[in-house]
Amino acid sequence: MLDRFQQAVGEGFMNGPYAPKNPNHTPAYYWRVGSQGGVRRTLMKLWPYLGQVKRDQALDVLDRLNQYLDTPRGRWAA
User: Where are the alpha helices (DSSP H) in 1-78?
Assistant: First the structure.
């Protein structure tokens, strides 16, 4: 499933599988974006499909990204 998402947005990296701590669970896979440009491009592609709550969360991510870019050592601002 994540490989299809990665292909659709054309961004990011997949990691896994990671063995679950609970033997009744399936292995976990993770998708992540490694650049601020990748974050912005992914959000632009997903924007038309997001509801208002997720749009608000996406705008918060962009605000945090802008704060991050303004820090001298490149850390996320709290």
Answer: 2-9, 36-46, 52-69
